[in-house]
Amino acid sequence: MSRDGATREIGHLGQSATGRFGHGLAQRSVNQSLDGPRIGRRALLAGGGALAAAAALGLTGRYLGRERHETARGEVRHLSLPDGSLVTLNTDSALSVQFGETERLIDLNRGEALFTVARQTRPFIVTAGSTHIHCLDSAFAVRHLSPQVDILVTAGAVRTWEAGLIGTTPPTLVQSGQHLSRQAGQAPAVAPLPAHEAERRLAWRTGMIILEGESLGSAASDFNRYNRRRLVVSDPALAREKVFGAFRAEDPEAFARAAAIALGAPLTLSEREIRIGYDRRT
User: What is the CATH number of domain 8-194?
Assistant: First the structure.
């Protein structure tokens, strides 16, 4: 596909199955993934998105038109970018794509996306809030649910930094099998992530939510990202209970029934709401 071609949607959930960890991209060395323009000690414009990140790297040139892609609640979409890179966009997510002569820019405005980056000399820069991610070829997922940004690298490596004066702190390297969490204004936390845990966190690609000890309240929030019929946990103590299991993201009622039985909690169903615990409004 030519550089100037439009981004192509290659399927929705259940129509175009993706491979494990980034559409089967073979892992390359860290050096391969990070060769190319290095981040200079130039001030990075806060809040300026991927264009500001490109300017901070000293990358300028003619830009093609900006494309915007959004998913509805409950939708997972697969995209092929003009350079051959692949993106899987999770539910209720939005990103914009703008390619230039010297860089490839992505703004993840909200939500979650898995990127499999085609190798080129032009750096691939993803901006999520005030976090910027730079690579040449890697496979990584970015979750941008304000105020936190999470990065999970499954092949290659990325460099990431916070918007601001870039010379004050070096970029953070995140390699394959590692996970980074960052909140605006705080130091990033990088930790190893076993392959089975990475697979679990990426289960959304196939429409699943896999729980291994998350709180009931956190699980309810995850299901609510996919469904208009809201899942509510009435009791704060109940919301802290840990839950386990694999569930279809589009079926919160099945999850709620299983959780209510396991926790011995009452369940109230209505057209707009699924409530676990006693309804304290009555």
Answer: 2.60.120.1440
